[in-house]
Amino acid sequence: MTGIRQLANHLQLSIGTVSRALNGKADVNAKTRERVLEAAVELGYVPNQSGRSLRKGTTSTVGLILTQGNSLGENNDNFFFGVIHGLQTALKRHKLDLVLLLCSRDEDPDSFLQRMVAQRIVDAVILTATRTHDERFEILRRANMPFVTLGRSDSLGDASWIDLDFEGIARASVRRLCGRGHKRIAVAVPNVDANLGPLFLEGYRQGLEDCGLPFDEAIVFRAETSEEGGYDVAGKVLETADRPTAILLIAELMSVGLYRRLGEAGLLPGRDLAVIAERESPVGRFLLPRLTCFRLDLDALGRMLGEMLLSNLPAFAESYQDVPKGKVWPLELVEGESDPPLFA
Amino acid sequence: MTGIRQLANHLQLSIGTVSRALNGKADVNAKTRERVLEAAVELGYVPNQSGRSLRKGTTSTVGLILTQGNSLGENNDNFFFGVIHGLQTALKRHKLDLVLLLCSRDEDPDSFLQRMVAQRIVDAVILTATRTHDERFEILRRANMPFVTLGRSDSLGDASWIDLDFEGIARASVRRLCGRGHKRIAVAVPNVDANLGPLFLEGYRQGLEDCGLPFDEAIVFRAETSEEGGYDVAGKVLETADRPTAILLIAELMSVGLYRRLGEAGLLPGRDLAVIAERESPVGRFLLPRLTCFRLDLDALGRMLGEMLLSNLPAFAESYQDVPKGKVWPLELVEGESDPPLFA
């Protein structure tokens, strides 16, 4: 098999140039890249990931684990795409590649991770969709595989993590709604074991307490974090004795179904039920009325997540000593049209 | 470094059992798996992807290439999640893993692919977001990397492909709308170079011809295939002299923005502008009125895509001789509430 040295000799180019050409770097001109690739085929050079892997003892690849069959992951397309862009920015500095590993809906997330770890497709992983008690932390520790997590968990231990400020936005939402005249405020949280549910509820409780409003389990709704979940929640709100005048939704997609269900009942979102949802998204921006929600800088979050991971990799840790060990990520309110004052 | 043989000897288990335990197979009981993983850590066994790679000369990993910064890819979350499930089903039969490779929005899709190929992170790839003229086919051919594509292109050559029946659904939509009394039917297609645009337009033309309706370039709208794109298209529809009474949308997310823009103008989707969109999705199902659209079996499509790829891999080709070389994937109309008869 022709190696990179033979290829460089044949082309009378430096190994560095050939390597950069093979790796599609921008600092190699198009003509040179063309020459290198043609010669590679001609001489039977097989750019070999295995060679690279053995030499460094690593794959130079980081895996982001996404979990399907969990509407929290599945419906968060633009969330993950945003985060991934920032992640790649951080990882690219050190020529690390990012791959997404998808745990399909008929596989257990723990066994899936175990399989990925055993096969060493990647050198390090980023966990998402953390559960309050989550076995995966232990699996990674046992395998000595570096990792960071997007989401908190009781199983965190000394792992590095970033999580959205779920308590903060729930609390701020209740206070905002109360300030606008609402005294009976419902909340919708996930019906699956996801650590963000209890956090969101805790902020909701604090907000009620701040406003001197009672907590009523009857208007805490647990549902799928999807359009359908929102539709179901709206149905239940309509059936509630002493109907709430406002609701907080943990996921913006829920608002699509909620809007429809209100419409079917001849009610208008906003006017007849004030709505605040967790996160700004294109769908929420184009609903009528536009959703009041919370915005965050996904790209910056992704970059910090990447840097946190780098601070956990021996080869790069030194450059990332300033990166925090854990971070509650702030979100900022975006005023929409879905939560007007009660008696406007 | 401790290899799998030493590990098996130490545990007095067969190499097969140890391998299955390390790979998280269900047929190894939990206690044995525990023992194997503990011993692996104790003896310093590093399950080594490189070893595996060298032995077979492969990585046993297949990459699905997704392109960001292209609203067609970015907004098609539930589309890709559905396809991926089927893909994994087919690939798992042969212990091939699927990873997603994301071309970020500031990277050129051609250089991205070139980089992935040069680094041999995967043995084979699945292309998506094909352009009418697409350099990537040539890149893969030059590198001798097996591939299949989700989407057609003029650059296909002898590559295996699956694509949705864009001509068919556009044609059927025009005929349906005409049958419901519409004589002036607009269409919205992507404003980027994506091969599905011309296909959709061709079906639209054929439908008009079938119905004896004239083609009018003034009501062919090119826009981003997103909520915002739909909002813009609706704005243009409202400004059109001799306003269309119906519209076909190439992407269902466009309907969210279109509904909002009509609402802002005091108009009702369905009653004031009939709408048919390409593909069934949760958002469309919960819009009011519910979208009329087209459904396909994503899981079956993903499985066939996987089988097509297997038929292109020398190690597995023999078992997949019956898999077609190309396939126009059928879609079925799902009646919604967004395209009632014109004078109902």
From TrEMBL, chains A, B:
Q: Which SUPFAM superfamilies match?
A: lambda repressor-like DNA-binding domains (SSF47413), Periplasmic binding protein-like I (SSF53822)
**What UniProt keywords are attached to this protein's entry?**
DNA-binding, Transcription, Transcription regulation
**Where would I find the HTH lacI-type domain in this sequence?**
2-56
Q: Does the record's keyword annotation contain Oxidoreductase?
A: no
Q: Which domain of life is it from?
A: Bacteria
* Keyword check for Transcription regulation: yes
Instruction: Spell out the molecular function terms from Gene Ontology.
Output: DNA-binding transcription factor activity; transcription cis-regulatory region binding
InterPro entries membership: HTH_LacI, LacI/GalR-like_sensor, Lambda_DNA-bd_dom_sf, Peripla_BP_I
Q: Name one Pfam family in it.
A: Peripla_BP_3
Q: What is this protein called?
A: DNA-binding LacI/PurR family transcriptional regulator
